[in-house]
Amino acid sequence: MMNVLLTGGTGFLGRTISRTLSSSDCKVFQLTSGSQKNRIDISKPFDLELDRPVQTIIHAAGNAHSIPKTDSEQQSFFDVNYLGTKNLCKAIEGLNILPKSIVFISTVAVYGVDEGILISEDHPLKGETVYAKSKILAEEWLHEWTYRHQIPLGILRLPLIAGPNPPRKLGAMVRGIQTGRYLSIGQASDRKSMVWAEDIARIIPKLSERGGIYNLTDGFHPTFGELEQAIAQALKTKRPVKVPYWFANILAKTGDLVGNRFPINSERLQKMVSTLTFDDRKARGELGWNPNPVLDKIDHLVNPFEH
């Protein structure tokens, strides 16, 4: 039985990690405040109180893809993602027995690219968003801290994560297709890397043994058109209405003028019509990574209560 301490266990991926590892040979603990079942604010210094040693710490807590609109919202990314990581490490130092490994959930946003094909782990970290910068700083801190304490570090750089009842962009896409309010742009032939949440959870024990930095994808990188068709079939509804690129571009220009209240702008449109895929061959060769194609799991994504 491996004891695991998990941060971010209430998030979309964190819940999947907790459920998946708990069903295997792992005992999963989550951050609590003393003897109370209260969430710890990792952006502030805290102490860890554990009644037994843990072999692995999985750091999945973080501020994710929301778009900051104020200086305080921008600062919250650094407070949670970077300072929260430093606070966690300082809390670990207070344990009687240090963990045998740490696994950090990072993002492909650290590469700072909006288009490209099979981008590998050795690509420069040029992310310019506050999300990417805060994750880069957290990665750098963890490298230095784990080296100093001689603890193996595993980092997973993840693309769009799919799973039952997905949040954010993928969830909005499902709801849009379900309600008939989603528009398919142009040929919808551009590919995007995705990965199934349970597959991420299942590879973590192997990563905790080996350490290293890995991209994870489903290896198929579906097109928007393939994803739209699969979601529509699972929902038993019509495929989304297709609009030409020139029309979408007019809408995007309108969004540039209106601001964040509008669902699309030129920057978002460019991302939607650009291929962006990441190379996971390192994980396949070193970790035995053998994921499910996300398209094969779409029915589980849109109809989770039927499975």
Describe this structure in words.
The protein is an alpha/beta fold. The chain has a domain at 2-166 and 193-221 and 276-294: NAD(P)-binding Rossmann-like Domain (Rossmann fold). It is built from 10 helices and 12 strands. It has a 6-stranded parallel sheet with strand order 2-1-3-4-6-10, sandwiched between helices. Strand 3, helix 2 and strand 4 form a beta-alpha-beta unit. Helix 2 runs parallel beside helix 3 and helix 7 packs antiparallel against helix 8. It is globular, with a radius of gyration of 20 Å. The two termini are 28 Å apart. The mean pLDDT is 89.
Please give a handful of descriptors for the protein shown.
Rossmann fold, alpha/beta, six-stranded parallel beta sheet, 17% strand
Order of helices and strands: EHEEHEEHEEHEEHEHEHHEHH
**What's the rounded overall pLDDT mean?**
89
CATH architecture of the domain at 2-166 and 193-221 and 276-294: 3-Layer(aba) Sandwich
User: What class, by secondary structure content?
Assistant: alpha/beta
In the sheet with the most strands, the strands line up as: 2-1-3-4-6-10
The total of helices stands at 10
Strand content: 15-25%
Give helix % range: 40-55%
User: What Rg is obtained from the alpha carbons, in whole angstroms?
Assistant: 20 Å
Could you name the CATH homologous superfamily of the domain at 2-166 and 193-221 and 276-294?
NAD(P)-binding Rossmann-like Domain
Low-pLDDT parts are: none
Count the E strands. Answer: 12
Distance between the termini: 28 Å
> Sheet bearing the most strands, described?
6 strands, parallel
State the name of the first-level CATH class of the domain at 2-166 and 193-221 and 276-294.
Answer: Alpha Beta
CATH topology of the domain at 2-166 and 193-221 and 276-294: Rossmann fold
| Shape, principal axes of CA atoms | globular
